[in-house]
Amino acid sequence: MRLLFPFEVSDYFCDRHQITLLIQRDAKKLEANREKIRRMKAAFWRVQDTLNGAGIEFVVLKGFANWDRYWADPELRLQYDLDLYCPYNAVAARDALAKIGYESIPSGGRVSVDHLPALVQKTGWQWNGDFFDPETPISIEIHFRLWDEATEGFSIPGVEEFWSRRVMQSLDGRAYLALDPVDSLAYACLHLLRHLLRGDVRAANVYEIAFFLDVNADNDEFWRQWRHIKEAGICFLLAQTWFGCRTNAVAQAEIDRLDTRVRKWFERYAWSPAETLFRPNKDELWLHMCLLDSFRKKVQVLVRRLAPTRLPGLLDSVFIPDEQLTWKLRWSKRLQYARYVGGRAFFHARALLPTLSRMLKIRA
Questions:
Q1: Sheet holding 81-85: strands in order across?
Q2: Which of 59, 113, 193, 270 is the most exposed place for a label (fewest CB within 10 A)?
């Protein structure tokens, strides 16, 4: 199984898509990632002790919960945050973590679709351009749902049952709750699909599904337990296209069931999500249109994606305590934010006309 991109990938591309260590085993970056993993575990165990002490049950989503099934070597995976699923007590979990120094990052007017604003500890760290910096603080996202039907425009039947099937797993001998393995694959697909429809795909997330499909291509026992999710076929096909993975007959059946319009989108735009770093586009918008069943929903998504009105959240200096924000840092923070907003506005402007012109092609 290998990366099949029809274009050269730069170091920045690989870092941004979290596949650097899959492409080449850079000793320095590998050692830095080992230290990141050590710190991530320490952060998780403190979070777990805090939530357990408050009587708050949660499930770990993604990250190390998927290590043994989705990666040949966990040390090759970059992890920047902890994703916890608390469907009934997300606010209580946030308040419990506030007592050990976690603070919510201002959302900048954005409405979170499935989790509370990210929590961070203000250690004074600042972004230095190094994706492997082991000093990067671990942020926490507390999810209160696994799919937002109102925002995405369509439902995923059965997703509300994932919580009742949660199972026990362990990290270095310490137990924690995770999704059932079948539900874990389903959620990995939903997570990838949401990012795909928002033009924010990471190749690492596609690789995880491709690796799982390839390793379990002959695992008929697992696939006998698979619960059909028609949108999963999109993620299976993307994994197959980008990485050439093998698939079990059940997984292939999910791909074969895909609507003709979805297949046509793949024929024309399968690489578009990876090309956004150097060719601004919103080609995923027409895939989204294929999944919506009403004109009203299509208009809502089109307006939201083509003419976004909400400003992005803060990025720079969010780990610096307020008392350490000198006037120089405050102005630097505002300047960086202005540059980021300007960059996003430029991206949307460049992508607008090409996106509209492609609408006719995908409908042809």
A1: 102-104, 119-121, 139-143, 81-85, 59-61, 174-178, 167-171
A2: 113
CB 319 within 8 A of CB 121: yes
Q: What is the CA radius of gyration of the chain?
A: 21
* Residue at 338: amino acid letter: A
Cβ(147)–Cβ(115) under 8 Å? no
Of 267-271, 295-299, 331-335, least confident by mean pLDDT is 331-335
Q: Cα(281)–Cα(36) distance, rounded to whole angstroms?
A: 33
Report how far residue 239's alpha carbon sits from residue 251's, in angstroms, rounded to the nearest whole number.
Answer: 11
pTM: 0.88
Residue with tokens 């929590």: 119
Tell me which residue of 83, 65, 84, 64 sits closest to 75, measured CA to CA: 64
Alpha carbons within 13 angstroms on the beta-carbon side of residue 142 total 27
Q: How far is it, in rounded angstroms, from Cα 38 to Cα 329? A: 30
Amino acid at 223: W
